[in-house]
Specification:
Layout: E1 9-17, E2 21-25, E3 30-34, E4 47-54, E5 60-63, E6 75-83, E7 87-91, E8 98-101, E9 118-125, E10 131-135, H1 138-144, E11 156-165, E12 168-173, E13 178-182, E14 195-203, E15 209-212, H2 217-234, E16 238-239, H3 247-254, H4 258-270, E17 274-277, E18 280-283
Parallel strand pairs: 3-5, 13-15
Antiparallel strand pairs: 1-2, 1-4, 2-3, 4-5, 6-7, 6-9, 7-8, 9-10, 11-12, 11-14, 12-13, 14-15, 16-18, 17-18
GO molecular function, one term: nucleic acid binding
Protein name: S1 motif domain-containing protein
InterPro entries: CvfB_fam, CvfB_S1_2nd, CvfB_S1_3rd, CvfB_S1_st, CvfB_WH, NA-bd_OB-fold, S1_domain, WH-like_DNA-bd_sf
Length: about 290
Amino acid sequence: MNLLLPGSVVTLTVKKITSFGYWLTNGKEDAFLHKRETEEELHVNDEVTVFLYRDNRGLLVATATIPMITNERYDWVEVVEVVPKLGVFVNIGISKDVLVSLDDLPPFEELWPMRGDQLYCSLKTDKRGRLLANLAEEEVMQEIAVKATEAEFNKNIRGRIYRLIKDGSFMISDVGYLGFIHHSQRRKEPRLGELVEGRIIGVKEDGTVNVSLLPRKHESIDEDAEKIYQYMESRGGAMPYSDKSDPDDIKARFNMSKAAFKRALGRLMKENKVYQEAGWTYFTKNQ
């Protein structure tokens, strides 16, 4: 007879009824089902399908609410709490949230998922029998992936980050394409579990794609021009930067290359919104 394992879904028999709930058994081991964890009124010898986990005291308990993920089933779950130096908790659809241990998260906490991010997980137990969320490995993501075709080249793509490495980030799109974002194709490193939007810049023979989170050039000009304009607006319509400014100064202030800065500044000048004088840039008088 199989052991009762936290994280599994099993059908058990009601062995005993108490004022608080039901003792369930498989004939060898028992688990407790609190009355608040089932909508049914049960009787001795009734069979009930439940999900098993351990409570804060280490007692094996059951719920008739079957969660989105189990030891054998993966799904997307939402991050509901971040606890520094411990990990993040995810909602699996029952009254108990489950921890993704810091051992399975990126080494830098700024790359941990935030509340509202989603992770593709199953469940596992540690050496002490605690139930933990188990991040999907690459092989699991490949099993649910959809192959992209050349027709997807240069199309927009949206998806979740599921793995981080030194050279970049792996994502899976809304429709199931597996994508890789090289560190040169982003302005900042996305978090694990973050929803990102970009464009497909390459389709490989295996159906995976290369993705850029950088905007197309015309989109970049609009975005960069807006960033410059808002910065000037915050300073009363003037800034100590022009197309002659040092590239490092521009990068530090606006997080853009000098070439991108000059294109965006040229757009604002062409629209007669700004002018340059003595190394400064000013709003024109009609602003």
